[in-house]
Design goal:
Elements lengths: L1 H17 L2 E2 L10 H16 L6 H7 L7 H6 L2 H29 L6 H14 E2 L6 H10 L7 H7 L1 H13 L5 H20 L11 H19 L4
Parallel strand pairs: 1-2
Length: about 230
C-alpha cells in the first residue's frame, strides 16, 4: 500500500514539475487595473531592480493614464510588493506541497539538496508568455531590496517554504543565526540567478537543457554553501 501511494505521489508531482506553469507576461485585454499593475511591476522590477523602475513607469506600462492608480490600489511600493506575493505565492505553494509530500514518502526530508530543490523548483517551473522566468527575476530583485524584509511574509504566504527553512536551520545549528541568514540571501542570489541565466541570452534561443543543468548546479552549490563550517 505504501509503495502504491509513493508511486501515485511521484507521478502527480512529476506532472506538476515537468509542465511549466505559465505566468502572464503582459496584461491581457480586459485585465483589471490592479492585475495589470502587478504584471507590469514583475516585468519592470525583475528587469531593472525594485529601485530601477518608478511607480509612475509601472502605471504607464500597465496602461493606466492615472498616475495615482498604484496609490489607490496598493498604497505604496511596499504595498505593491506585498500584493505581488499574495497574487503569486499560492500557486508556488501548491507545487511545494506536492514536492514536500513526495520527499516525505521517499524519506528525503532530511536531505539538504532535496529541501532546497523543494523551495526553488516551482520558481524554475514558472515561465511567462515569452518563455522567460520573469517572476524569478522579480524575486531576485526583491532579495536585493534592502527595505524589504520578507521573513514574516514567507511564514504567512509560503508556509511550505518556511517549513523547509526551519528544517534546514535545525540541521545547520552550528551556524550562527546572522551567518545563516546571510547564507540564505546568497543562496537566493545563486538560485534565482541560475534560473534566469538563459533568459538573458540574446544571441540565440534559450537552451532548455543547459538551463536545467545550470539550475541543478545552483541547487548543489547552495546545499554545500549552507552547511559550510563556520
Amino acid at each position: 500500500m505504501k509503495e502504491a501511494r509513493s508511486t501515485m505521489t511521484q507521478k502527480k508531482t512529476k506532472r506538476m514539475i515537468t509542465g511549466h506553469a505559465q505566468a502572464p507576461s503582459t496584461p491581457a485585454r480586459g485585465t483589471g487595473t490592479a492585475e495589470a499593475i502587478i504584471d507590469a511591476a514583475i516585468q519592470l522590477w525583475g528587469a531593472r531592480g525594485v529601485d530601477g523602475a518608478s511607480l509612475r513607469e509601472i502605471s504607464i506600462a500597465a496602461g493606466s493614464a492615472n498616475n495615482s492608480s498604484i496609490g489607490y490600489h496598493f498604497g505604496d511600493r511596499r504595498g505593491l510588493i506585498e500584493a505581488i506575493f499574495r497574487a503569486r505565492m499560492p500557486g508556488l505553494e501548491e507545487r511545494r506541497k506536492l514536492l514536500l509530500e513526495d520527499a516525505r514518502v521517499r524519506g528525503l526530508l532530511d536531505d539538504p539538496l532535496t529541501l532546497i530543490e523543494i523551495t526553488y523548483q516551482p520558481v524554475f517551473d514558472e515561465i511567462d508568455a515569452q518563455g522567460c522566468h520573469s517572476f524569478a527575476a522579480f524575486l531576485r530583485a526583491v532579495n536585493r531590496f534592502s527595505e524589504w524584509d520578507g521573513k514574516a511574509w514567507t511564514q504567512e504566504l509560503a508556509p511550505s517554504a518556511f517549513l523547509v527553512m526551519q528544517i534546514l536551520m535545525r540541521k545547520a545549528n552550528h551556524v550562527p543565526q546572522p551567518l545563516f541568514d546571510a547564507r540564505v540571501r546568497l543562496i537566493n542570489e545563486i538560485c534565482y540567478g541560475a534560473i534566469t541565466d538563459q533568459d538573458k541570452n540574446q544571441s540565440r534561443a534559450p537552451d532548455a537543457t543547459l538551463a536545467k543543468k545550470i539550475f541543478q548546479d545552483g541547487l548543489k552549490a547552495s546545499a554545500h554553501l549552507l552547511f559550510l563550517d563556520v
